[in-house]
Structures are given as C-alpha cells and as structure tokens.
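I'm curious: can you give me some protein's one-letter sequence along with its backbone structure tokens because I've never seen that pairing?
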Amino acid sequence: MNQSAIRARREKVAYYMVKGIPEGSIAELMGVHRITVARDVAYIRGAAKGWLDDLARDGFIHEYRLALAKIRDHEFELQKLLAEANGVAQKVEILRALDQNVKLYLELLGETPTVHAYKRALRKLQEGKGNVQPA
C-alpha cells in the first residue's frame, strides 16, 4: 500500500475517532481489520502527543484552555440572561451575542493551534534550528 493510501485511511480513522466511534466499529465501517485500525490509532495518538508536547513546552496549552473556559463561562452567563429576558428585542440581542460567542469559540478551536504551530515552525527556521517537516 502506498503512502498516500495510508495517509487517506488514517485521515478517515481520525475523523471517526473524533466522532467517538469505537475502533471495532471503525474497522467495520472502513472494511479493514481491527488491528489495522488499532495501529492507525496508535500512530495518530503518537503524532498528536508530540505536537501537544511541543505546545505545552511553550506554555500554550494552559493559556488556550483558559481562553476556552472564559468563552464557555460567557456562554453560560448569556444563557442565564436569555432565560431572564423580558422582551423580544432583548432576547434577539442576547441571541446575537450567543452567536458571536459560538463563532469565537470555533475560531479559537480551529485556528489557534494551527497558527501557533506555524509560528513556532517559522521561528525555528529563522533561528536555523533544523528542518521543519510538512504535515
């Protein structure tokens, strides 16, 4: 099997992992042996661990988690306000704020780790500290 086929299979396995599907079910869905899925899961977790370890060394994980927690806290406060709102205009304004809160949360989840990893890679290149491997 060539590298691109393996990469494609691992991407599908990662997709199913994120959805919380057990390894045995992933194997059935993909029509591969469970051992193959277990091996792919181990590879994915190993690759992710190295990436997270690098981020943690920079203190990024703590700040990232704090930011996500603040956004969630803000959402809970907005939900309380929505439950207590009296008029339609007030409810509409709170719903808009909730929408903005969700957008911010999704942006933080989707972009921040990628941007951080990209900036770290650029710093390494600028400092001449070895090769940067493409994803």
